[in-house]
Amino acid sequence: MKTLQLTNEQVKQVKTLIRQNTDPYNTLKAISNIIGGYGVESIRGNYVSQYWHDTQLLYVNMGDTYTPTILYDTETERWLYLSWGDWVEKHGEKRGIQ
Length: 98
What we know:
four-stranded antiparallel beta sheet
C-alpha cells in the first residue's frame, strides 16, 4: 500500500485549511493542490441532507483506491485520514453505496 508523504509545512497548511473550512469541497480542492492529488471526487449512496443530497463522502483522489488521503464524511461532518476504499468497506452497506 502506498502512503501519503507530507512535509511539516504541507501538514501545517492542510490543518489550517481544515480549521478555516467553510466549504468542504473547496477546502479539499486546495488540499489536493498541496498534497499532489488529482482533484476531488465523491461517493454517493443514501440521502444525507437537503444540502448534500446523496453525497456520502468527498475525498482527494490520490490515484489509488487504497492510498490514504483526506476525506470529508458529509453525514458525520468529520474530516478523516484514510483511504476511500477502506471507508467504503466499513460504511458502504449501511450508507447505500453500491
